Amino acid sequence: MADNDLYLYLLRLADDNLIVSQRLSEIVARMPDLEEDIAVANVALDHLGQARNLYTYAGEVEGKGQSEDDIAMLRNEREFSNSVLVEQPNGDFAQTTARQFYLDAYQVPLYEALTKSSDVNLAGIAGKAAKEARYHLQRSALWLVRLGDGTDESHQRIQAAVLAMWPFTGDLFVTDGVEERLFEAGIAPDLVPVRDRFDATITEVFGTATIVRPTDPYQRIGGRAGFHTEHLGHILPELQSLYRAHAGADW
Amino acid sequence: MSYDVPKIEGEEDPTFGNSTAGTGGYPLWEVFVRAQRGLSHVHAGSVHASDGEAATQAARDVYTRREEGVSIWVVRSSEIHATDPDDSGDWFDNPKIYRHPTFYEIPEEVGHM
After folding, report:
1. Among A124, A226, B32, B105, which lies 20 to 30 A Cα-Cα from B65?
2. Are A38 and B62 in contact (CB under 8 A)?
3. ipTM of the complex
């Protein structure tokens, strides 16, 4: 059923944003300097805003009266369909930067393709999100270059971080029947050109940053189907406890 | 008061034009934001950053997060030449009220100037 497909697809897009937003929020006030502290809070809020738009629309598509909070706060780990990349721990600044860079390099072409979606609401949400994603990518690429082409220590750390996050990037491009049917309907984009642009971005930025591109073929996938790494199970209680303890809480 | 900035063995001492105490070694940049087309860039504050590109990014996040601007300039604080506060009396405190164009009658036809 097409509406259920669209509902599930919107959750995938939204969950990526909610979970990465939660991760980034964890390190607000713990960044290397005040400037980056404010910057990371901005990025976290951008992702939260994108998640809210997508959850609200998902609730309308589903038609059962669920609010954005209901959808975000009352699902369990197996019902979350974010990619396994975004739930990975912040680690050091290099790991946070590497995770963000991979996500940004994926979201820019994804959102730009979604602006041509036959679903006008989704196209509208994507249009706004694409602007934010392009800024995020500029910022994370800037840091990748400064760390990669910086000191011996920063180079070593960012190189280790891009290797550590690499096995979780394949999950961004996993498709199933839901996305295939939505692609047929002109709602979801073809992920092959999205992946081509993701690859081109990585090659270009890693080149400038003097970072060796990972080639490990092993990829941990399954997030879209609700099979997560152990980390998501620790994120959700902190994220959801207030809403679950005080049903319908508004803040 | 000064702080020790952790250094990697063999790393050169960063030599910047102004104090970098407590900033991880980043120099200071002055930020100028243009609120909208047609207006001038106005000083908004300062940020610490490793270079100009990083400074514009930091300035964007610190000073334009509530849609305050359409353009940003940054300049190294050490590149700014300023007047000496001790000279301010000689330089500025000498009223020349007659130089304000308030002694002219503006003809009605000119309207608002």
Report:
1. A124
2. yes
3. 0.82
